[in-house]
């Protein structure tokens, strides 16, 4: 159980760091639609990767 809590904390921190790094960069051609699309693509790509890592971690622990 402790392992899962630590794993969830790591995933949340990674998501926060990625989100903050995206919002830090200034873009002279900023548009809210483009920003939303970029974040959507990022999270749609990260969710399956994170899910695979979690499943692999779960299988290796059990």
Structure write-up:
It is a single chain. The chain is mostly helical. The chain has one domain. 85% of the residues lie in helices and 0% in strands. It contains two helices and no strands. The chain has helices spanning 2-24, 32-61. Helix 1 packs antiparallel against helix 2 (32-61). It is elongated and about 50 Å long.
Notable characteristics:
62 residues, 0% strand
Helix count equals 2
Write down the Rg: 15 Å
State the domain count.
1
Sheet of most strands: none
Helix content: over 70%
Q: Which regions are unreliable across 5 or more consecutive residues at pLDDT < 50?
A: none
Sum this structure up briefly.
This protein is mainly alpha-helical and 62 residues long. 85% of the residues lie in helices and 0% in strands.
Helices and strands in order, then pairings?
Blueprint: H1 2-24, H2 32-61
Helix pairs in contact: 1-2
């Amino acid at each position: 159980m402790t392992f899962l809590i630590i794993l969830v904390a790591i995933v949340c921190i990674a998501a926060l760091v990625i989100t903050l790094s995206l919002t830090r960069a200034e873009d002279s051609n900023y548009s809210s639609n483009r920003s939303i699309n970029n974040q959507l693509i990022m999270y749609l790509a990260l969710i399956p990767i994170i899910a695979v890592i979690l499943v692999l971690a779960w299988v290796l622990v059990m």
